[in-house]
Write a structure and sequence with these properties.
By secondary structure, the chain is mainly beta. 0% of the residues lie in helices and 46% in strands.
């Protein structure tokens, strides 16, 4: 099935639509390559970057076949629908390097042409759970390939699968695996060859590697570049599945390069290895699968080719080991036993059947402390040269188990890759006897002291020694407190064999406390992986100076309990006043302050100024009680503590307290009042005015408001807000009048008669 290109579908690009025509030259030039899809992050203007790496045969390829732009197609896996295409542009064009540049030959030269483009994928089009794939196909492969049929007419299909880019409305962050930079090496017949084909995953996903048959795709000599728009602006994009190349007889995905060790790849590391048995140019394909949480989420293919040459004869070097005092060389698989205290050095012997070889000694695998090889590099002059080297390692090489596997590698400068010989040595390292360090102080026993604030200080030396002359670390640790915050000074230190450090402490008042300070002085030796330690503990007690307690009293007579009634408008009846006096017999500076039990005394109107000074302080207390203090209750009790603190360092006798209890109640209201019904304003001294003599005093729930008197026609003749009002009748005629006496909660109304 073929799909005609018409327009981008559901894909936003940073650079617009495809423009122009691509070169459609038929040429044999493709060595291999791969696609990459990289997530750009949330801050980028675009969501992803698409890269394509094309390996171009610089020896046999036609320079006119270099495409300046290429078009990558993107399909939905579920139904192979074309989602859109992206035009990529050349961003670099460089030769790929050999492992050893001096080994370059004219028959093998490869360029890496890198194409790239930033794109934005829309959520609506790229959230299908089945995922997507992108492809690019081009003809033709290198015409000199020997392991497939008709290589000069065979196409190459680059392929990458990726998961949905949105899941449940959220971005699914994923980038495809990125292959390591390939080397332009060739293979020598009947010689071991390895090549790193590993990949890195930017998201930390798990990767697995396998060899598969390369795709041929649908391009051919008649349509070498189907993705390039023709003169009518049309292009052909083929969905999968895609046809494979056709292997020549005797070749397959598992036998792409034949030999005593056919081409293999480590499924975990991606490292290729082969010992080829025939010359030729061989194409192969590595498939990398990407797993997240055990689920396959993507895959990418890399096509490549390796040239097998009949190289000049070269033999690998040989590395041997012989222990001091022995005539026989070390036999692999045996165990050499040494002690940790011995001189941990072994003698190596190197030979190479080929003269004038520069040999290099290295180690692989386990890393040992203090490992050195002397010399690490030298040159043989004849085929019979035997060169010696010394490999040494420091103490602690045995680790916790004492078992060490040491792999020593001798490499020559053979082409295309060094030939090597690896000697695996098993060591059993017996650890030295280790004694723990000893920590002491120069304090006389017991390891405790009592310090008086202001009058004493302490300094002593802490020493740690180790009879094994190991490195020692000495430090001080406060149990439940920080040394520097408590005013203690000790510099943690490290030394060899013996270390000493001074501890100092001059306590101040804030450090006085009832419980002692416990300081642990801890030493550890640095004896390989089996450190031992020792601890000595010093107990320090800090006490304050002898102290007599301060005093505090009020000017209240005898009882500290006050009974107070709230009488609205009566300041004298509703207020309390007394003085507070603080003193200290030691003439210490004191602080005098008040604390209300369960209430803020200032917020309810109590007045008291806290004071600081020496030795005698005085401050008045006053309170004008208002109805608000009762909060609608008939009565309440307020307890105020007056405190005198001399701020001494003693844990005892440093404060004094006197307590005042104030009972506040509402004035009881008696509403049984007697109102006269007649008065005679004749100046005879009897009943000359209208008044109510037994109006109750105001309280927090009911207060007198006013009196109003009107005649029988409703005209007001008298009014007053004075509870002690008097109406003399003035010049009003005799007769009956109406009165209204109003309180907060009730009103009295009635008749009064004026007689002359």
């Amino acid at each position: 099935m073929t799909l005609l290109y018409s327009a981008f579908r559901s894909l936003l690009l940073t650079g617009g639509l495809l423009l122009g025509l691509s070169l459609t030259a038929r040429a044999t030039h493709i060595v291999g390559g791969e696609l990459e899809l990289q997530y750009r992050g949330t801050t980028a203007a675009t969501t992803h970057r698409i890269n394509l790496n094309l390996y171009f045969d610089a020896v046999n390829g036609n320079p006119g076949a270099k495409d300046q732009t290429i078009n990558v197609a993107i399909f939905r896996k579920r139904d192979n629908v074309l989602m859109g295409t992206v035009e990529l542009f050349v961003i670099s064009d460089n030769f790929i390097a050999y492992s050893q540049p001096a080994c370059a030959v004219g028959a093998v030269s490869t360029r890496l042409i890198r194409y790239s483009r930033d794109v934005s994928f829309t959520q609506s089009a790229f959230d299908d759970p089945g995922g997507y794939y992108m492809t690019w196909e081009r003809c033709c492969r290198n015409g000199t390939i020997t392991n497939i049929v008709n290589p000069g007419g065979a196409g190459s299909m680059f392929y990458l699968e990726f998961p949905n880019l949105w899941s449940n409305g959220r971005v699914y962050v994923n980038s495809s695996p990125v292959f390591s930079e390939v080397k332009g090496d060739y293979v020598c017949i009947n010689k071991p060859f390895t090549l790193d084909f590993s990949a890195k995953d930017p998201d930390g996903d798990s990767l697995s590697y396998s060899l598969v048959t390369p795709y041929n795709g649908f391009s051919d000599t008649r349509t070498p570049n189907p993705g390039a728009p023709d003169q009518f602006g049309q292009a052909i994009y083929h969905p999968g599945p895609y046809p494979d190349v056709t292997w020549s007889g005797g070749f397959s995905a598992s036998n792409a390069i034949t030999g005593s060790l056919p081409l293999r790849i480590d499924p975990k590391t991606g490292r290729l290895s082969v010992i080829a048995d025939r010359v030729g140019l061989n194409v192969f394909c590595v498939l990398v699968k990407e797993y997240r949480a055990g689920k396959l989420i993507g895959q990418v293919r890399r096509d490549f080719q390796l040239k097998v040459l009949d190289c000049p004869v070269n033999d690998p070097p040989v590395v041997l080991l012989r222990q001091a005092g022995q005539t026989a060389f070390y036999k692999q698989g045996t165990v050499i036993s040494i002690t940790e205290k011995d001189q941990n050095c072994l003698t190596l012997y190197l030979t190479d059947p080929n003269a004038n070889q520069r040999l290099t000694l290295t180690t692989i695998g386990q890393t040992l402390p203090g490992l050195t090889i002397t010399p690490g590099q030298f040159t043989t002059r004849t085929t019979r040269d035997t060169t010696t080297a010394t490999i040494c390692f420091g103490r602690c090489a045995g680790g916790v188990s004492g078992r060490v596997t040491l792999q020593i590698v001798a490499s020559d400068e053979g082409c295309p890759q060094p030939l090597q010989d690896t000697l695996t040595v098993q060591l059993n390292i017996t650890p030295d006897l280790n004694h723990k360090p000893i920590v002491i102080t120069d304090l006389a026993p017991p390891q405790s002291r009592t310090l008086l604030v202001g009058n004493s200080s302490l300094a002593f030396i802490v020493t740690a020694t180790d009879i094994d002359n190991d490195q020692i670390s000495l430090r001080a640790v406060g149990r439940g407190f920080d040394l520097s915050s408590a005013g203690m000074a000790f510099a943690n230190t490290v030394g060899t064999g013996s270390v000493a450090q001074v501890f100092t402490f001059k306590p101040v008042c804030s450090q006085a406390r009832a419980e002692p300070y416990l300081v642990d002085f801890v030493a550890f030796d640095n004896h390989c992986y089996r450190p031992l330690g020792d601890t000595v503990t010093v107990k320090l007690t800090v006490t304050g100076l002898p102290n007599r307690p301060p005093t505090i009293q009020t000017t209240l007579p005898q009882s500290q309990t006050i009974e107070l009634s709230v009488v609205p408008g009566d300041t004298a009846a509703s207020s309390v006043h007394f003085g507070v006096i603080g003193d200290d017999p030691d003439r210490d500076s004191i602080s005098m302050y008040a604390v209300g039990r369960g209430f803020d005394y200032q917020k309810i109107g109590m007045k008291f100024a806290a004071k600081n000074g020496r030795p005698t302080l005085q401050s008045p207390f006053s309170w004008l009680v208002t109805c608000e203090a009762l909060q609608g209750k008939p009565g309440a009790t307020f307890i105020v503590d007056f405190i005198d603190d001399d701020h001494s360092c003693s844990q005892f006798n440093n404060t004094a307290t006197t307590t005042v209890v104030i009972h506040v109640k509402n004035v009881a209201a008696n509403y049984e009042i007697v109102i006269p019904n007649v008065f005679t304003p004749n100046n005879d001294g009897y009943n000359d005015y209208f008044a109510v003599k037994n109006i109750p005093p105001d309280n927090c729930t009911d207060q007198f408001r006013s009196v109003v008197i009107v005649n029988r026609w409703g005209r007001q003749v008298f009014s007053s807000t004075d509870r002690n009002f008097r109406w003399y009748g003035e010049d009003f005629p005799v007769g009956e009048y109406l009165y209204s006496i109003e309180f907060t909660q009730r009103t009295y109304k009635g008749h009064v008669t004026l007689l002359r």
